Amino acid sequence: MTAGTLDTARIGVVTFPGTLDDRDAARAVRLAGGEPVSLWHADGDLHGVDAVVLPGGFSYGDYLRAGAISRFAPAMDAVVDAAKGGMPVLGICNGFQVLTEAHLLPGSMVKNDHLHFVCREQVLAVENTSTAWTNRYAPGQRITIPLKNQDGQFVADDRTLDELEGEGRVVFRYQGWNPNGSRRDIAGISNARGNVVGLMPHPEHAVEAGFGPDGEDGPRSGTDGLGFFTSVLASLVRA
Amino acid sequence: MGRVVVEVMPKPEILDPQGKAVVGALPRLGFTQFSGVRQGKRFELEVEGEVTAEVLAAAQEAAVTLLSNPVIEDVVRVADAATDAAGTITAEGVA
After folding, report:
1. B8 CB within 8 Å of a chain A CB
2. Domain residue extents for chain B
3. What would the DSSP string read from start to end of chain A?
4. Is the pLDDT score of B90 beyond 50?
5. Which domains can be identified in chain A, with CATH numbers?
6. Which homologous superfamily does the CATH classification assign to the domain defined by B2-94?
7. Is A47 a catalytic residue?
8. Which of A41, A127, A202, A205 is catalytic?
9. pTM for the structure as a whole
10. Reduced to 3 states, what is the DSSP secondary structure of residue B28?
11. pLDDT tier, B92 (very low <50, low <70, confident <90, very high otherwise)
């Protein structure tokens, strides 16, 4: 199914055992004007959705490696096929880890270099605004969204990092402080086509005034994450 | 019943935060001899019957597809536990 208008765009949100942020992701889709569709990890049918969000959490308790077991869920076979066909896919935190384990994105995440769980409001620079999930931001725009993880250190070999930089696929970079030791301050990346994006921080927790990070308009007023979801709706209308 | 041992270690070039924490704790207990620690994983895969060449090949395949992530880890050992001397360390010492 192809979305004709904003109202009809259906965004799937996959729930794995141990996923925590699926309802927040669905709420973000709704606040942006889309229709969230709950997808279950054991179901290999994507139910005709136009895009997919893999939300954060600790799927399978992070056993083996973060995202390693979820990657083999029936829903992921369908997501991998759809992503290769150009469907927008966003992996947030544990979802990003699942995307790297599924080889839709390069590199991997290991434990934070300081070994602590970190939970804070994090400033990022949006360095690529041509992806399906970032086209509503201005190039270089600074956004503040929550970050919370234990295994958030992005690692890849130098050749892969050079390739990502050279092709403009570093989509988000940490500003001010690198919270986990990620190589080259990388917070999020995309595939070559720009339809698959993964990042460690959580845009879905910064979509409604009163419930977001502290912002210019006062405490909890930050809604910098909403642009992810309005971006994908815009990209679906164009497609 | 047969058993295959698979061992996975973080790649040398990847910082191992867990090993770093352990090496920091050792001197506090008086173990000052150790200058570095790297922490890996050991899997024991059980099979009904004997560990054949076919079983070892399947274990190798499982080791590189699921048990390890080649971006950050190396599979350093896939072996039959019964014939592998390194697998028989007991509480009393090496048997």
Report:
1. no
2. 2-94
3. ----SGGG-EEEEEE-TTB-SHHHHHHHHHHHT-EEEEEETT----TT-SEEEE--B-GGGG-SSTTTTGGGSHHHHHHHHHHHTT--EEEETHHHHHHHHTTSSSSEEE--TT-S-EEEEEEEEE----STTTTTSPTT-EEEEEEEESS-EEE--HHHHHHHHHTT-EEEEE-S--SS--GGGEEEEE-TTSSEEEESS-GGGSSSTTSSS-BTTBTT---TTHHHHHHHHHHHHH-
4. no
5. 6-238 (3.40.50.880)
6. Phosphoribosylformylglycinamidine synthase subunit PurS (3.30.1280.10)
7. no
8. A202
9. 0.90
10. helix
11. low
Check CB contact under 8 Å for B15 and A181: yes
Positions in chain A short of pLDDT 70: 1-7, 239
- Catalytic-labelled residue, pool A41, A101, A127, A204: A204
**pLDDT, position A20:** 97
Handedness of CA A159, B19, A152, A185 (dihedral sign): negative
Question: Residue A110: its chain B contacts at CB < 8 A?
Answer: 10, 14-15, 17, 72
A49 touches A39 (CB < 8 A): yes
ipTM confidence: 0.79
Task: Give the pLDDT confidence score for residue A8 in this predicted structure.
Answer: 78
User: Which pLDDT belongs to residue B85?
Assistant: 52
User: For residue A87, what pLDDT is reported?
Assistant: 98
Residue A216 pLDDT: 85
B65 interfaces chain A, CB cutoff of 8 Å: no
Tell which residue, A7, A10, A37, A26, has the closest CA to residue A205: A26
Q: Are A15 and A210 in contact (CB under 8 A)?
A: no
pLDDT reported for residue A111: 93
What would the pLDDT profile of B5-59 be if each residue is shown by its tens digit? 999 999 998 888 889 999 999 999 999 999 999 999 999 999 999 999 999 999 9
Closest CA to A225 of A151, A123, A128: A123
Q: Are A234 and A155 in contact (CB under 8 A)?
A: no
Instruction: Tell me the three state secondary structure of residue B66.
Output: helix
Nearest of A111, A62, A127 to residue B72 by alpha carbon: A111
